[in-house]
Amino acid sequence: MNKKVLLLGGAGFIGFNIAKFLGNKGTYDISIADNFFRAGGKIDELLQQLVDKHNIQIFKGDFTQPNAFEQLAKDYDYVYMLASVVGVDYVNKMPHEIIRINTALIYNTLEWLRHSKCGKVLFTSTSECYAGAIEAFDYAIPTPESVPLTIQDIGHPRFTYAVTKMLGESGFINYSRQLGFECSIVRYHNVFGPRMGFKHVIPHIVQRFRNNENPFKLYGHDQTRSFNYIDDAVEGTVLTMEKGGNGEVYHIGSMEEITIEELVKYTGELLGFKDEYVYAPTYPGSVARRCPDITKATKELGYEAKVDWKTGLEKTVKWYNDYLDANTELHESFYDNKNKS
Ligand SMILES: NC(=O)c1ccc[n+]([C@@H]2O[C@H](COP(=O)([O-])OP(=O)(O)OC[C@H]3O[C@@H](n4cnc5c(N)ncnc54)[C@H](O)[C@@H]3O)[C@@H](O)[C@H]2O)c1
Predict the structure, then answer these.
(1) Which atom, in ligand 1's list, is nearest to the CA of 125?
(2) For labelling alongside 74, which of 50, 131, 134, 144 has CA 20 to 30 A away?
(3) Average pLDDT over residues 67-87
(4) How many A from CA of 16 to the centre of ligand 1?
(5) Cα 190 to Cα 186: distance, rounded to the nearest angstrom
(6) With contact defined as beta carbons under 8 Å apart, do 81 and 9 qualify?
(7) 63 CB less than 6 Å from ligand 1?
């Protein structure tokens, strides 16, 4: 019998790709619950095609409201909890809303699980939860799951997102232990790929090259990151759901650590930029180095990052360049407009 899967926040970047991956396997009945804010409250064309192809059930609602959960079934085998407001722009513009929305989504999901009979839940967390430990305590890089979760400045808007993810990790592990469902956590590390939205570093860089920024500013040029191509992140997520230990956390990412300068300059090369680069200061609160230790996921789940950063970047830059050639209006206006009013 097919497994019954709910993707809460499934219209987003990672959720869409998990739906595609599971749909292609053909052994899952998939449902997506979302408020579709990234496409202004609508189902975008790519998602609609996927929904039609795999007969995906859609539940539209603002899941910060507990009654939105009433439309869902109560017996999913797997619940992927992906719903969240993500992106540095949002965090800086509306930190209070990050706290309200992400906390409400976590709390309402946990309370709904209390009254449901779901098998297993996966909560999606972030490397941002331990960024402070690297800076403050000079913690090991590549960084394993055992790192203490730390933020550097409780009052800084940037850390509101990480604080809600720490709540989520603790909330899902402790609710599951008390209430008899299973749970695993993934901590993602800079997932990237086509259709990732316009609030992340790679789409920003592509747009800046297209706007003919010259000389091109290299903000935080010597900072390092490890970029995890979406196909690998999806595989790691599904492996964590299906094989991950109960109450366990897994670092899902790539161990290829590169500088921002390498990332920007290769993007420039792909877009035919031949002019000048200048160094510029980094963004405040941005960690100097980040690279996950994925040994636990490799040993316990058989996870590996297969796509190297250059191959992933080539696919991503091409997708954004083609998209921006064909579209003048960017999605993701919903919260931006709401925040202005
Ligand atoms: N992309 C990354 O590199 C990355 C890194 C670390 C953690 N994560 C986490 O993984 C998860 C998925 O990330 P993503 O990149 O796909 O983000 P995304 O923004 O593309 O997807 C999040 C989804 O949540 C939905 N959502 C937001 N508010 C909602 C509400 N009130 N009701 C219902 N749905 C709502 C959005 O519409 C969106 O479809 C998120 O929880 C994110 O915090 C992602």
Answers:
(1) 7
(2) 50
(3) 96
(4) 10
(5) 13
(6) yes
(7) yes
Q: What is the pLDDT of residue 241?
A: 98
Write down the pTM of the prediction. 0.95
Distance 173 CA to ligand 1 centre (A): 20
CA atoms of 11 and 212, how far apart (whole Å): 32
Closest ligand 1 atom number to CA of residue 199: 19
3-state SS, 28-64, equals EEEEEEECCHHHCCCCCHHHHHHHHHHCCEEEECCCC
Residue 284, pLDDT > 80, answer no
Phi, psi torsion values for 246, nearest 5 degrees? -65, 125
Paired strand residues for 110: none
The pLDDT of residue 262 is above 80: yes
pLDDT digit string (tens) for 88-97?
A: 888 989 999 9
Burial 170-183 (b: 16+ CB within 10 A, else e): ebbbebbeeeebbb
Number of domains in the chain: 1
Separation between Cα atoms, residue 199 and residue 98, nearest integer Å = 15
**228: Cβ below 6 Å to ligand 1?**
no
From ligand 1's centre to the CA of 167, what distance in Å? 16
Give the pLDDT confidence of 104-118 residue by residue, as tens digits. Answer: 999 999 999 999 999
Phi, psi torsion values for 241, nearest 5 degrees: -60, -45
Give me the residue label for tokens 């091409």: 318
- What SS3 state is found at 159? helix
- Containing 215, the helix (H) or strand (E) segment is none
Mutate to test the pocket of ligand 1, among 13, 101, 163 (most ligand atoms within 8 A of CB): 13
For ligand 1, atom 12, the nearest C-alpha belongs to 82
Parent domain of 295: 3-340
CATH number for position 268 = 3.40.50.720
Closest residue by Cα to atom 31, ligand 1, is 62
Q: 198 CB under 6 A from ligand 1? A: no
